[in-house]
């Protein structure tokens, strides 16, 4: 699997950077564009803070930002955002199998997704696949909750 | 399970606070006391930053700190530290079943442990118990990694 080779790993990013890129990607997919005002609303922080962070992401080559024209993700930014979206989806599907409350899942996944290395991702992926294919196993585990 | 009742949940704490309490508890268990210099070494930050944080933890009633005499955890601080230690242990044992590298496990667990709610904890606990009791299932999942 490509994920397993250290050389294929994108640059290290903080949880805050990953959350920004994740939100920008979602906004672009949903609305066709991402504006500072929308990101501020999604992340519940001030527009001034968002602008500062977007300028930093631009300097780091993760976002291309032009005032009044909006922003796009660079190839590197898109790669990070996609990786986080994958982890988000994986962890959500994993926890859903146990019937955990959706609000709790959303909260836990938003935090956990930033700390899942490729190895752990692969393990949870294989585990999730097994559980999906074996509902009687899941039923047994849920009875023991 | 006591964990499931919202009223039994300790006060909300940040990942940084949880890491401090976790380290202080470990130092006291290992050496009988926790000093600023040791915490600074463990968390790889300056003694000045540690002192500032310890004063904050003291003000929040999580630590009792007396300059030159050291610090102890309050009942509330001990409760938070124990909760994190439990999550740390649970996640470590869970990931170990898949033969993930110990360095990777340590890294992922240090981050993930701060984002596991009681519901998710219970699910992973039941799952881990099932996997421990069913090594053939684990072998199948590992083959599919
Ligand atoms: Mn997410
Ligand atoms: Mn820990």
UniProtKB/TrEMBL annotation, chains A, B:
Gene3D superfamilies: Iron dependent repressor, metal binding and dimerisation domain (1.10.60.10), Winged helix-like DNA-binding domain superfamily/Winged helix DNA-binding domain (1.10.10.10). In the presence of manganese, represses expression of mntH and mntS. Up-regulates expression of mntP. Belongs to the DtxR/MntR family. PROSITE patterns: HTH_DTXR (PS50944). Pfam families: Fe_dep_repr_C, Fe_dep_repress. GO terms for molecular function: DNA binding; DNA-binding transcription factor activity; protein dimerization activity; transition metal ion binding. One of its GO terms (cellular component) is cytoplasm. This is Transcriptional regulator MntR. PANTHER family: IRON (METAL) DEPENDENT REPRESSOR, DTXR FAMILY, TRANSCRIPTIONAL REGULATOR MNTR. Homodimer. Keywords: Activator, Cytoplasm, DNA-binding, Manganese, Repressor, Transcription, Transcription regulation. The keyword Cytoplasm applies. Residues 13-74 form the HTH dtxR-type domain. It is found in: Cytoplasm.
């Amino acid at each position: 699997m490509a994920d397993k080779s250290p050389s294929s790993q994108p640059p290290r990013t903080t949880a805050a950077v990953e959350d920004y890129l994740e939100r920008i990607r979602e906004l672009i997919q949903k609305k066709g564009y991402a504006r500072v005002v929308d990101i501020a609303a999604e992340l519940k922080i001030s527009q001034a803070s968002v602008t500062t962070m977007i300028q930093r992401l631009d300097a780091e080559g993760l976002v291309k930002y032009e005032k009044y024209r909006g922003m796009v993700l660079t190839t590197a930014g898109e790669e990070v955002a996609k990786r986080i979206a994958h982890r988000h989806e994986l962890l959500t599907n994993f926890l859903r199998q146990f019937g955990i409350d959706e609000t709790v899942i959303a909260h836990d996944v938003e935090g956990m997704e930033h700390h899942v290395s490729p190895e752990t991702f692969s393990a949870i992926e294989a585990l999730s696949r097994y559980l999906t294919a074996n509902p009687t196993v899941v039923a047994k585990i849920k009875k023991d909750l």
